Amino acid sequence: MSSxxxxxxxxxxxxxxxxxxxxFPGGANTPEAFWQxxxxxxxTVTDIPATRWNVAQYYDPERTVxxxxxxxxxxxLDEIDQFDPEFFRxxxxxxxxxxxxxxxxxxxxxxxxxxxxxAPTQLAGSQTGVFVGSFWDDYAxxxxxxxxxxxxxxxxxxxxxxxMVAGRIAHALDLHGPTLQMDTACSSSxxxxxxxxxxxxxxxxxxxxxxxxxxxxxxxxxxxxxQMNALSADGRCKTFAANxxxxxxxxxxxxxxxxxxxxxxxxxDTILALIRGSAxxxxxxxxxxxxxxxLAQQAVVRQALANAQVDPQQVQYIEAHGTGxxxxxxxxxxxxxxxxxxxxxxxxxxxxxxxxIGHLDPAAGVSGLIKVVLSxxxxxxxxxxxxxxxxxxxxxxxxPITVPTQLTPWSGQPKMAGISAxxxxxxxxxxxxxxxxxxxxxxxxxxxPYHLLTLSARDExxxxxxxxxYSIFLTTDKTHVLADIxxxxxxxxxxxxxxxxxxxxxxPQLQAQLALAITRQPTVSLERSQGTxxxxxxxxxxxxxxxxxxxxxxRELYETQPTFRTTxxxxxxxxxxxxxxxxxxxxxxxxxxxxxxxTENGHSECSPAPSEFSPTPxxxxxxxxxxxxxxxxxxxxxxxxxLWQAWGIQPAILIxxxxxxLVAACVAGIFSLEDGLKLVAARGRxxxxxxxxxxxxxxxxxxxxxxxxxxxxxxxxSIAAVNGPAxxxxxxxxxxxxxxxxxxxxxxxxxxPLTVSHAFHSPLMEPMLADFAQVAATIAYHPPQLPLISNVxxxxxxxxxxxxxxWVRHIREAVRxxxxxxxxxxxxxxxxxxxxxxxxxxxxxxxxxxxxAALPSIGRVLTEIMRGARWCCPPIPFSANAIGWMxxxxxxxxxxxxxxxxxx
Length: 904
Prior knowledge:
By secondary structure, the chain is α/β, with parallel strands linked by helices. Helix content is 36%, strand content 16%. A hairpin with a 4-residue loop joins strand 14 (416-422) and strand 15.
């Protein structure tokens, strides 16, 4: 969209910084580690690693010796040769030719997204932009320009192209937003952030990755900079100090994740800071090509303030470019004094991260930005190092500026900072950054007693390494709560084929589970699995029929799961006018609370039921009555389905048994919840009004034999259900059904009378059909949005299921459940999840075919439900919303990412 078409408010909207990742010297491989380094005033300068080149061969302390460098120290990263190519779907051969800068960017970009609580793989196809600053070509010098011509390959050539540093990220993550690399020397990464903000405001992208990278891999360019006499002899940036003699070089990588503030707030993202405004310009014809210009610096800062709509007095801190050169430092502080010094009541605090980690060249700006974000978060300004005697060329007495030499509390409301990056090329950038707005985390309506931690990696070895990292994290970090850890691992991470699921009530218990996982000791709350593909196997939802109900079914879910409770209460609200009473009072009468899975007499729901149609004999009238039983089952199963879908488990196909098919139809979108409840309330009321002169009997015989037995009585008895190859249910007039059962029993056929109120799916239902047809005709029907198997045919339902006539036939005709299970098998379904109060249908389905996984929705207590979710993990890769259990803080507290890849 053209900026001319955007309202002015869009063009000035603050940009939310919601994630960041880094690799900085001194082992600062996470923002948290970087903060500890900064607040402790750590100097990361070391000798040039011997693994880079033969330092002695190129070193000479004399500054004027041609072909030599007079420095032998700097701020370096460790282990830059380590990379897990398979994690990024790259062959080892390709990775061997890849510039380590590009490898770093892939890893840090992934970590920044995870820090933001965004699963990188979920961004595929999105309008996400990538903006990267880089300019050193050390790897290309070695692998391309110095290589014999016959050794040049496609891979080595592609790796040398600077455009690939950004393009490779977009390619790896399948991002479709604007993607570009920029080289303005020392201002490259801050320019990347500025352009990302512009692209977001112009709606060229909806999310942006921005930052920079710099590695020192060859001596040639370092020698060249020494010939410019620009480097500090001891490798340190002594910014603003009297002994400043040039800058010390460092290396590193930093990436931030940006989003428009309105979108971040709407999406519930944790906002780390706001970029209020930014600006860029050029020195023009300054004294020399590389000489900074005071007027240009003043202009870019003033423009950034204007774009941010911020008064200079509101800014308390400046993260200076601050290289430590005798010429540059006085120019920069004088420019800041001109902009911020007028009528200032409190001194402007100025510091530079370069005193800790050196000058990161194209990554310098983003390292300063990450420092500022961390400082805003902690309300502290880290000490500025190597500042002994102040530089006498700086007019300190005229400048309302102070340099912090110790950890300093950050006061001011709101806290606000400026960040400068001035490129050797003459391109200047300035950002205005403000502390994050107050974000309130809603308190949970109920506390969840159990949480599910879902970990995954691309192979078993990487999974073991990830488990070890989580164990270390839980041991060293005491600030996070279990709910946030589990939520972040599930919803804010991409998931892979090798998986581990852990159930825990507390962090100590989770630590114990991790310890067992490390030693590979089995435990009932731990499940390892290995997927064979990246896509989950299809899952079927099976909706249980009448006879499975019991008092207090789902009560613990109602008391602990807000999604379940809200859905059930919505059903109750809709049913009250239809029933004249609350279905919740029927489900959960005001007496001592019983656990899920216990009936009035304490029997476990896991006890095998004799049939789909057999309720517990000791039920009170309220739930044994069809008038209440059918609406209660519908409401419970609809709430269960909603809960599983909220946990990220989506069905590929649906099947129900009798009344369960009405719930399945509602979930499939054939009719609305309001209409579904209207239909089921009428169905239960009309059935309940029929004479109770019928009977039902389960028979372990073939359908042909049963058909032969009932053939003489077509108007009195019929097959009510075909539950298996040799599992039939007949229904009809009581005396006739009993006579047929006795006859078959004499033949050695096993029979089981069912405790039912009426003879469902039999000729005795016919007196209610006309009245029910009138109600069914008032319902609005729609084509199913999910595949649904018909009870009437046992096949995939067609257009007929979205008609009143079908639901009238559904009452009278047999439930062909066994045929439906055969159809599920033909559809490639191997994972069955029963949506109902008892695992009745799973037992019936197992008579028909082998299932990879059979999962009940409700177990004896909530622990069993959690085990059900845990069991679901092996066949079903974790979804973006997670199988497990959104924590009460939801988007509130971020847990730092633990790398999924192998480090060897």
